[in-house]
Amino acid sequence: MRPAFVTGGSSGIGFAVARQLAEKGHDIALFARDQMRLNAAKASIVARFPHIRVETFAVDVSDQSAFVAVLERALAVLGTPEYAIASAGIAEPGLFTEQDIDLHERHMAINYFGSLYFTRTLTQPMIEAGGGRIGLISSGAAFFGIYGYGAYAPSKFALRALAEVLHLELEPHGIVTTLCYPPDTDTPQLETEKRTKPEATQQITAGGGLWKADDVSATLLKGMEKGRFIVTPGVQMGALNRLTSLIAPALRWHQRRIIRKVGK
């Protein structure tokens, strides 16, 4: 059984994915910025599944040369992954006129380019190994523009486009590409997101409920195992995926109503 590589693997959805893949018998490579959190994640997995090998790699996924070097080291240590899940990401809401260009660039660097470096480095080894499964984590913000997500949403739109291309190009090589659109999920990232989220954005995004990371992970892995391209945990994400082009005008009207209300 080949290993699983997971970015953002020290917390949230990434950690849940890693833990569930360890339960299935896969050795794990965890990638994240904070070595202490990586150590804690490793200890938690090994305590439950002592037969599983867990390797940790502290790296900023937006640093191309450093990230590629770390991925190549992980390949040398564990071998080519069967599962490659890019879960590292940031979300810092705010108004377009109030956010620095640097923040826009950082969202693209982590959310889009981090996933690009990850998949580009691993694709050829996976092809040579006979295939595999790639999981990319998008967002409901990739379906339509949401007030307050000027920096975040474009990075997820870009990731969606990349996933659509990978799905077509890699399928003949035995690689399944799965794009997941999780709803709001109870993770440390969501708590960070709340600190800068405008009031109107809070109201606009409040109707989707709150999912547990374990439930999102289980839905994602089930979809990957079945070879699905799109995975939409929950009724709301499923409806957005199927009906965005039809309901986008109504969703924009709903946002404008909330924005006017908050502005009074």
Automatic annotation (TrEMBL):
Q: In which pathway does it act?
A: Lipid metabolism; sphingolipid metabolism; Sphingolipid metabolism
Compartmental location:
Endoplasmic reticulum
Q: Might you give the EC number(s) for this enzyme?
A: 1.1.1.102
* Domain spans labelled Ketoreductase: 2-186
An example of a Pfam family matching this protein is: adh_short
Record's keyword terms, sorted: Endoplasmic reticulum, Lipid metabolism, NADP, Oxidoreductase, Sphingolipid metabolism
Q: Which GO terms describe its biological process?
A: 3-keto-sphinganine metabolic process; sphingolipid biosynthetic process
Q: Which GO terms describe its cellular component?
A: membrane
InterPro entries per UniProt: KDSR-like, KR_dom, NAD(P)-bd_dom_sf, SDR_fam
The domain of life is Bacteria
GO function terms (MF aspect)? 3-dehydrosphinganine reductase activity
User: In which broad location class does this protein mainly occur, judging by the first location in its UniProt entry?
Assistant: endoplasmic reticulum
Entry protein name? 3-dehydrosphinganine reductase
Which species is this record about?
Shimia thalassica
Top-down, what is the taxonomic lineage of the species of origin? Bacteria, Pseudomonadati, Pseudomonadota, Alphaproteobacteria, Rhodobacterales
